[in-house]
Amino acid sequence: MTAITLTRPDDWHLHLRDGEALKAVVPATALQMGRAIIMPNLKPPVTTTEQATSYRERILAARPEGSAFEPLMTLYLTDDTPADEIERAVASGLIHAVKLYPAGATTNSASGVTDLDRCDAAIAAMARLGLPLLVHGEVTDAEIDIFDREAVFIERIMKPLLERHPDLKVVFEHITTADAAEFVTGAPANVAATITAHHLLFNRNHMLVGGIRPHYYCLPILKRERHREALLAAATSGSGKFFLGTDSAPHAQSDKESACGCAGAYTAPAAIEFYATAFEQAGALDRLEGFASHFGPDFYGLPRNSDTITLVREEWTLPASLPYADGQRIVPLKAGETLEWKLHTE
Ligand SMILES: NC(=O)N[C@@H](CC(=O)O)C(=O)O
Fold first, then answer.
1. What is the pLDDT of residue 1?
2. CA dihedral 269, 271, 276, 279 (to 10 degrees)
3. I need a labelling partner for 66 at 20 to 30 A (CA). Which of 23, 119, 176, 318 fits?
4. DSSP 8-state symbol, 171
5. Is 247 a catalytic residue?
6. Mutation to probe ligand 1, out of 11, 14, 15 (largest number of atoms < 8 A from CB)
């Protein structure tokens, strides 16, 4: 095949940051995606409808001329999120989900939830109003090995949460293990998952063999090959429970290439190309459109996009780095490497 045309995809998990960074990263996503679920882990986090509404305005202002890209906003759940904030969020029509970060799990998660019981009223309101909870599914206990944190989360947090709120719509974000893929497959229809392109393409050897490659360091961390295979099988299964969420997470080059580097892979500049590569490797390019463009809006109860994009089989090389905020540079994943699929642009 030399070209494929798809309904325009959406990104159901995206970090855009704020301030000057917006101008640097919003256009990359706006070129490919119709909409994106915008993560609220700013400093300070986006915890109110009012904050999310003004953050949305700043994102809209960073779109390229003529772009119809639509940011779908989220709120950051804290121990103190009141149920009436959930009602305000739904009434606004601009907030499409609430994000659960266990306190300390990842970048800017210090204000995250310490005990889910404390959020019970807010979560009950979400279940009642049909507002999805997006879950960073890792426990943070110091004694749990970083490679086991997702699997332990399922038993300790996810299952009890769904037992208490069986009607809650839950997206298990950026799943990285066979355990999570199996859990979501067996769960009722109100439970779905996003999968990143990098977890479909890479395992932990790519990050650690022959030298430590900080641009592959993200959370949840890349796992062993058998987990990558299970994720690829889930993504290409045709199940509507699995859909595209890049978790593109920009950090300045100096913050990644550091003695204590930040977690996050910047994949937005070639997101759909990365997914096409993974699906082609699995012999499942015909399943890409469902995963990238149909199942996400179906789960969120939104219309599918009505326009299309075309990918062509054409070699191109990702730049070694790109401009970022405050005169800094940012290194995309697979910087300087050649890709085989390219988004066709006029
Ligand atoms: N994925 C990451 O490694 N980092 C994300 C946070 C997150 O989604 O965990 C970030 O905001 O940098």
1. 78
2. 150
3. 318
4. E
5. yes
6. 15
Yes or no: say if 95 and 51 are a contact pair by the CB < 8 Å rule. Answer: no
C-alpha of residue 222 to centroid of ligand 1, in Å: 13
Residues with CB under 6 A from ligand 1: 15, 41, 106-107, 136, 218-219, 247, 249, 263-264
**How far is residue 152's CA from residue 139's CA, in Å, rounded to a whole number?**
7
pTM of the model: 0.98
Q: How far apart are CA 126 and CA 120, in angstroms?
A: 10
How high is the ipTM of this complex? Answer: 0.94
Tell me the CA–centroid distance for residue 289 and ligand 1, in Å: 25
Widest CA span of the chain, in angstroms?
A: 53
Q: Among 16, 198, 218, 258, which residue has the most ligand 1 atoms within 8 Å of its CB, making it the best to mutate?
A: 218
Strand boundaries in the chain, DSSP class E? 3-7, 11-14, 35-38, 70-76, 95-100, 133-135, 170-172, 191-195, 242-244, 308-317, 322-323, 329-330, 338-343
- The CA distance from 195 to 175, in Å, is 6
In the chain, the percentage of residues whose pLDDT exceeds 90 is 96
